[in-house]
Amino acid sequence: MFAGFEILSVYKFGSMNLAYNSDELTCPCIKWLGILPSDLTRLNIPDTWLLDLTDRDRSLTDHLLKRPFMEIEPTWKAEVELMASSGKKAEIQCLSSCFSQRYLVDVYLPQKISAGSWV
Predict the structure, then answer these.
(1) How far apart are CA 106 and CA 34, in angstroms?
(2) pTM for the full predicted model
């Protein structure tokens, strides 16, 4: 989950290394459709399917929360803060393990898209 968020932020806002060229390399309309930290509680994902944040994850979380784009994306900030405070993350594949092989494509993603519950 965390690496995916880091990649998403590069697509949306650009990398720090290529900041001079970010207008040409970003996709400002991109949305976070994958599993959100708030989904873990909402869907009652068992702790057995959650992963502890690594030291690297915690370091990246601290770094991301200091980036200027977090102030213009308060929902992103809240999700990252939730992940940091829980100390847990999950891969989207846990939905198949917790529910069924088809849950992700038959239930989770269609519901998120129809409800517009991406970030």
Answers:
(1) 14
(2) 0.82
